[in-house]
Amino acid sequence: MLHDHKVIKDLSIVIPLFNEAESLPELHAWITRVMVEHRYSYEVVFVDDGSTDHSWQVITGISERDRNVRAIRFRRNYGKSAGLNVGFESACGEVVITMDADLQDSPDEIPALYDMIKTEGFDLVSGWKKKRFDPLSKTIPTKLYNFVTSRMSGVRLHDMNCGLKAYSHEVVKNIEVYGEMHRYIPVIAKWAGFRNIGEKVVQHRPRKYGTTKFGLSRFIYGPLDLASIMFMGKFGKRPMHFFGVLGTIIFFAGILVLTWLSIEKLLLNTVGIANRPVFYLGILSVIVGVQLFIAGFLGELISRSAAERNTYKITETI
After folding, report:
1. Of 24, 160, 217, 225, which has fewest CB within 10 angstroms of its CB?
2. Distances in Å between the alpha carbon of 189 and those of 7, 134, 198, 233, 274?
3. 264 or 214, which is more confident?
């Protein structure tokens, strides 16, 4: 059920979920208590990501009783990134809070996160679950993932993928989250020009209902998504600067190898250079260099033909 949400509110709380029917009434009551205590004008936006249990029926009942609750339902499961992106598009709060629906994120953290955005001027604040209640099979890979991501992206956060985050209204309206990119929202925000990114130690609670949605596919797709974000952030509008330069270097390296072998053959009368591995390395380098250069050239053509090729985010004009 969708209510009128054109009026700007203090807070929008966006909650993507999948099969969390048992936790929803308790989560809603907890959020409501915190909002009333601090006298916020607010909305809660539940995004049902194609749940197969009775989550939607629970959300519908809550929405009918509480005019501050809105709900969006996907026909099938699209993933957390899709849920967040749709929630961001729908949100009308000056500050947008995201949190998981499994009760492992505490709504009591919301006021402090809100103040960090409104009072301290942060663009984005990410929660840091310093003390976790997850198994070692999840915590150890998470620490490794956060370390690598922090070093590669330059965004110094201890818990990049924490579901509990706070954003200014401008951030959520100027970023796009797709695929599995929700893990790297702080990196996406940085490349969108929002560099005042902070973090806050938040409480992490043991899961009370249901089962975790954590899967091993995260270890496969995570590094690929990070590489994609890093490339698009630096070379999205100028792919030739990456592929062209790399291709040129490899091409001329191959040419130097083949030239050296040719001179050696002519001056020293070396026999059987075609049987030497370095000969095939030179040929391979020439071929790969040409292919990379062509890839850059085609990428440049596509980039220059794109409708948004000259679309830039402008903060203000005088």
Report:
1. 217
2. 25, 27, 12, 10, 52
3. 264
More confident residue, 50 or 303: 50
Whose tokens are 């929002």? That residue is 194
97, β-bridge pairs: 13, 166
Helices and strands (H and E) in the chain: how many: 10, 7
Q: Is the dihedral of CA 115, 117, 122, 125 positive or negative?
A: positive
Q: How far apart are the first and last CA of the chain?
A: 42
Question: What is the C-alpha R_g of the chain?
Answer: 25
pTM for the predicted model, two decimal places: 0.74
Contact call for residues 20 and 56 (beta carbons, < 8 A): no
Q: Is the pLDDT of residue 315 over 80?
A: no
CA–CA separation, 116 and 200 (whole Å): 9
- Give the number of other CB atoms < 10 A from CB of residue 235: 16
pLDDT of residue 119: 94
